[in-house]
Amino acid sequence: MAVKEMPALPETAVQAADVQERRKPLGKRIYEGRVAYTMLAPTFVFLIVFMYYPALLGLYRSVYKWAPGLSADFVGLGNFVQLFTKDRVFLNSMDHMLQLAAWYVVSTVGVSLFIAVLIHRLRGGRAQYTFRLGMILPVVIPAIVPLMLWKFIYDVKVGPLNAILIWAGLEEWTRAWLSDPNVALYAVMLRNFPWVDGVAILILLAGLQAIPYEIVESAMIDGASEMRRFWSIELPLIAGQIKLISVLTIMWGVQEFTAVFAMTQGGPINSTMVPGMWMFFNAFRINKMGYASAIGVVLFLLTLVLTLINMKYITTEEY
Amino acid sequence: MSAARTETRELYRRSRSEQVGVFLRGDWWRILLLGLFLVGGIAPLVMAFLISLKTIPQFARQPFALTFPLHWENYGFAFEIVLEFIKNSMIVSGVTVIGVLLLASLSAYAFGILEFPARQVLFYLVLSLMMVPSAMTLIPSFVLVKDLGLMNTYWAMILPWIASGQVFAMFILRTFFESLPKELFDAARIDGASEWQGYWRIALPLSKSMLGVAAILNILGTWNNLIWPYLTIQKQALLPLTPGLWAYQTEYFTRYGLTMAGLLLGSIPLVILFVFTSRWFVAGLTSGAIKV
Question: Are residues B48 and B133 in the same domain?
């Protein structure tokens, strides 16, 4: 028995129903939405107490000279002026943050793209599956473990990095990687060699696999080389995914200070200081909470600007 | 019957020979390169394993190669300490994820399925929170938790993490609920079901895998948090795994065998979780890319 399609309501009838709905007094509509409000209530209680209140308090405290337990002095934009004119450590930390974020983007996109293309070109389905799994597995190792292991690898006395250099006859290259102010930032930056990022690889691989085979095939028939296939077909077609990964990495790089915290705490002589770490230091080591809040606000504004740039100029495709 | 079996066997044989043929057709260098990346990524863990079986004198004599006898008792020692951290982490991340799923699914149902005044405004209020970096709320949250007298309790971690974790979970669940056919819910309403029943008996059972994805993402986030527990928990007995491993490594730093054993043991719980939920894992990790 064929199921007949239900005749759709005429447009006007739908509109009439809609208008009728809207004509109801607001009080009645709110009353009818009571189930929805009840469902939202717990979420908003949590958000107000643990998100909005702290965020607004952070904004508010950033214009005070404030330490908990003491009276707060209003200083207007004084904290911000000091940050950007007098605080060398903060300005350097911004520079370090930019270097780190730039490197994170380059290494994440570069290495992940290389690996994703390699996996994509594998002909055996099983080999593809195996490597995909192999690349994503390290994600489940708690983030602190590689940080600690790399701290050990860089160790001046017992670390394998120096041991390898000595073994290779490059004794003059050995150094205290994490306590030499000239190289500490780069040591933090280059940790986790060879920079395999499972998540980015999965995203890029999904993008590559979504390219219709006909496009690639027709190019191959026209005699395009492997390199040409990559530069002229695949790269433009996964530009959306690459932008997405870049944006996510930059956003993360601006706020991130766990690595610095775990490996160097910003030292030696602030050579690995990043804004998040500097904020932490001001707030919890020397009790300048108002000043630290101002750093938090700067980070917020930076994120906001990046988000706006992203929304306005870089339209990431729906993944 | 047997003909079918020979056919299957023949197919299998052919696919095997195709696998071997892969090497002949120039895939070998790709496999080699990818293998190098894998080995490079895993090398520190192998190093940790080799060192984890050494006593201090063994490490001093021969730091990286295997030395005999193997001291498995390092693991026994580390286990007693790390187990406590793992227990704390499981309690904290477990309660958090239950809270997150409950709150996020309820609000996602309201935003995704129901109609009510101020829906858009409320939704944008939540959306705007995605732009607030955790760095900005760190200090005021700390002061708040201190004022509430929650320091050195599990709640100091659980309550703020429920609040922040539910935002992203709500987004992925809302997108999923909106994709469900409206007719399902209309039919239930006509049959006299309340919205609560629609939520509990239709929306939730249909979104099990999405709930799994949201749960995995949330667990990964809370499990790896170092800074917040470090600030709010001073009692060693209450430390979760990540700050626990950090403290443990600082305490036993020169006893490398014990340190490495502890780091490796601490990695096991998530690996087990991964084994049982790898499908959600993969979906969840790439859904970080869903544009909100």
Answer: no
The set of residues, in sequence order, having a beta carbon less than 8 Å from that of B260 and lying 6+ positions away, is B48, B49, B51, B52, B74
Per the DSSP assignment, residues forming a β-bridge with B205 are none
In a domain, A63, yes or no: no
**pLDDT per residue of chain B (292 residues) written in tens, 0 to 9:** 455 555 555 555 555 445 444 444 567 888 889 999 999 988 889 888 988 888 888 887 777 777 778 888 889 888 988 899 999 999 999 999 999 999 999 999 999 988 888 888 999 889 888 888 888 889 999 989 999 999 999 999 999 999 999 998 998 899 889 888 888 888 988 988 888 988 998 899 988 888 888 898 899 889 999 999 999 998 888 999 999 988 888 887 778 888 889 899 989 998 888 888 877 777 766 665 544 3
Query: What is the residue range of A207's domain?
Result: 81-313
Min Cα distance A182 → chain B (Å) is: 24
- Look up the ipTM and state it: 0.83
Tell me the residue range of the domain where B17 lies. 2-52
Whole-number Å distance between alpha carbons of B217 and A187: 29
Say how many CB pairs under 8 Å bridge A and B: 278
Chain A environment of B48 (Cβ under 8 Å): 149
- Residues of chain A contacting B89 with CB distance shorter than 8 Å: none
For residue A118, being part of any structural domain is answered with yes
- Which among A287, A74, A293 is positioned nearest to B139, based on CA atoms? A293
Closest by alpha carbon to B92, among B144, B153, B157, B138?
A: B157
Interface of A with B in 224-283 (CB under 8 A): 241, 244-245, 248, 254-255, 257-258, 261-262, 275-276, 279-280, 283
Number of domains in chain A: 1
Tokens representing B243?
């700050």
Contact A200, A238 (CB under 8 A): no
Gap from A215 CA to chain B (nearest CA, Å): 22
Answer yes or no: do B158 and B278 share one domain.
Answer: yes
Say if the Cβ atoms of B196 and A35 lie within 8 Å. Answer: yes
CATH number at residue A130: 1.10.3720.10
Assess whether B84 and B42 both reside in one domain. no
Contact check, Cβ <8 Å, A134/B38: yes
Please tell me whether residues B94 and B155 are part of one structural domain: yes
Question: Which residue out of A6, A22, A30, A39 would a mutagenesis test of the B interface target, given it has the greatest number of B Cβ atoms within 10 Å?
Answer: A39
